[in-house]
Design brief:
By secondary structure, the protein is mainly beta. Helix content is about 5%, strand content about 45%. The protein has one domain: Jelly Rolls (Sandwich). Strand 5 and strand 6 form a beta hairpin. The mean pLDDT is about 95.
């Protein structure tokens, strides 16, 4: 059965600055656990805690640049590019660049606080 999303839910983001998360599909907005799809607007200087999530995350940058750090390497993902990080892989997202970034994040299964497994601060 088709499900129309008339508007996203705004989710509070972890990290150092006010990042906007507009969830279209996921636990909060559509009550689905199979996938989450969110539009992110992250300001310059935002950094989130590292995590080892129980989901794959697919990210496509729409504007700006996103820094994606893993245990082995730091990646700069620019407008028009994407990156996939694997389940249980340690990762940290940040936007240290001027203008921040706007991007779409897709998590399989859906993001939830119980399975994100954030680093202890």
């Amino acid at each position: 059965m088709a499900q129309i999303v008339k508007s996203p839910s705004v989710i509070k983001a972890a990290g150092t600055k006010n990042k906007i998360i507009n969830e279209y599909f996921g636990h909060v907005n559509s009550k689905t656990s199979e996938v989450s799809i969110a539009h992110m607007k992250s300001p310059q200087g935002w950094v989130e805690p590292g995590q080892s999530p129980e989901f794959n995350e697919y990210t496509v940058v729409l504007k700006g640049k996103l820094m994606v750090s893993t245990k082995d390497k730091e990646y700069i993902i620019s407008e028009g590019q994407g990156i996939m990080t694997g389940k249980k892989e340690w990762v940290r997202y940040s936007t240290p660049f001027e203008g921040g970034a706007e991007y779409i994040a897709v998590c399989l299964p859906a993001f939830s606080p119980e399975i994100v497994i954030r680093d202890k601060e």
